[in-house]
Amino acid sequence: QGPDMPLSRLRKAIEESCPHLASSVHIRLKLMAEGELKDMEQFFDDLSDSFTGTEPEVHKTSVVGLFLRHMILAYNKLSFSQVYKLYTALQQYFQNDEKKNGMDESDMELTNTEELEGKMEKEELDVPLREEEISCSGPLSQKQAEYFLSQQASLLKNDETKALTPASLQKELNNLLKFNPDFAEAHYLSYLNSLRVQDVFSSTHSLLHYFDRLILTGAESKSNGDEGYGRSLRYAALNLAALHCRFGHYQQAELALQEAIRIAQESNDHVCLQHCLSWLYILEQKIFDSCVLLEHSVNKSLHFGLPYLASLGIQSLVQQRAFAGKAANKLMDALKDSDLLHWKHSLSELIDISIAQKTAIWRLYGRSTMALQQAQTLLSMNSLEAVNVGVQQNNTESFAVVLCHLAELHAEQGYFAAASEILKHLKERFPPNSQHAQLWMLFDQKIQFERAMNDGRYHIADSLVAGITALNSIEGVYRKAIVLKAQNQMSEAHKLLQKLLIHCQKIKNTEMVISVLLAIAELYWRSSCHTIALPVLLQALALSREYSLQYLASETVLNLAFSQLILGITEQALNILHMAIEPVLAHGAVLDKGCAMFLVAKCQVASAASYAPQKKIEALESAILNLNEAKAYFAKVDCKEQLRDVLYFQARLFHTLGKTQERNKCAMLFRQLHQELPAHGVPLINAFK
Length: 689
Description:
By secondary structure, this protein is mostly helical. Among the domains are: 7-99, no CATH class; 160-372, Alpha Horseshoe (Serine Threonine Protein Phosphatase 5, Tetratricopeptide repeat); 589-688, no CATH class. It is built from 34 helices and no strands. Helix 27 (510-526) packs parallel to helix 29 and helix 32 (613-636) packs antiparallel against helix 33. Belongs to the APC5 family.
């Protein structure tokens, strides 16, 4: 099936199954290669004798018998010049192996025995075909070429890391096309290979060549009659539209799609029209919300028996409804219906996409526990598709998304070592040149940014902003504003946040709009404009509740409680804190939990001012316990600035209660942190986070 393997590898393969036969094979090959042409002629004569006699060595109808007869027949059909060409090729094959062995022997004299043994073991374990084994100097047979193409296409889909590198694969494809320029499938694999490296020109060139060759060879017309030519043309236009859409060339994509729709309508091809409708939705959603198109596409796909397309439509519809703030229970019901379709038709890839979608939706709604559960479900699932041994089926976008969420969830809970292990695994599964590598690159940069901010190393956080912006411009601008705010560059941060707010409102990125509003409110506190911050926070709260973003709503309520504390409405602040703190403690990041407990302690101290002496002492002691909890959370994420504030607050409370020893301990720890991380002149009580 595969290309001719080197003689050394062939001998190794024979030795593994039948050791005593390997030396016989080598001797026979040596006799033919170092002898004359008549020795090869004699070999084929001996093969024919295997079938003669009362008890033949090989039965004519056995697997080996059929193979030998096929080989003898092919040999007998050769002309004299072709026989000579075969003999010289055999000699070359044997001599290449001898030269390689000679080089290995000369290297062996210079190499340590233990190193050589290690090298041999490594070679034995290296099951996938290596570049030198797969390359061929001459033309491959049709079957060999098809096997090579199907193997590489399967690897590109399921486990890109085990496929040949883009450069090596292109070299082999060019070699194939040199001997057979009209080999359409080779052009299509070249197109897939160019997509890996985001090469617009080469991918377009290869795609057009594929459909040109498909029409020229008549592969389509044989199976579909005259209809085959039109089918190739409309699917060529559709694929071209998909390619332009992938690279962000929406105008060209729309023109190609219109062409595909026109040809499909002329041919009355409903299946092609449904694919066109799906792509039309993808293009239209770049301009406006096109739910009607999508619903129509799902209904028609189900009508024409296209479960894959129908399911993808449902997934897109759910995603759109999630961003529009629909209730989670309705979305999960819709996904459950699509899951029934997947299991019924064994659509393994779509099952993975559905679970990854659920993970992302729970994350959007701020339910980290549910997101974690869905992520673990996908990672522990076995694939339904049969794949070759040694191929990881799960190197798809769904797994990249889920692993990225998992890394972020661990980082939020302060498990940075676990998060870095997950990211390391992602880097191995999805190398930097693979198509899904941008996902983990962004999450890696974001986790590093959060760690640098927690640690007060704003110069490092600032250096990471460029990398985040390159991968996601909105995230990059937001984080730049956060750094400026931390460095007390208030006016610059405010300008940046206002521009970002207008842009996010325009593109309807509600999640980022709320985050920006919270950041703007914090800028107003730091500038002692607490009354101006309140309308901004109320706007954020209204949006987060409208779009069912529970976690952001809880965070906004905490910010409102802080504003009320500053304005002196402490009892009201405590009341709304009790309402918001439960979701934060259940699903929040460790840093947010710490900030919430710190805020509770501040409110308790502020409200205790009007209490009777005994009740006041109890309230202060309760506040100290809450501060201890906050301190534990901040220590977990190494947030030194917040730790310093907690220690300062604790020292003051211990002083009020007359606990000198505890006060001195807190004061000493505060002094150590204060020397390491000097304050920027902002009053300690005047910041929530």
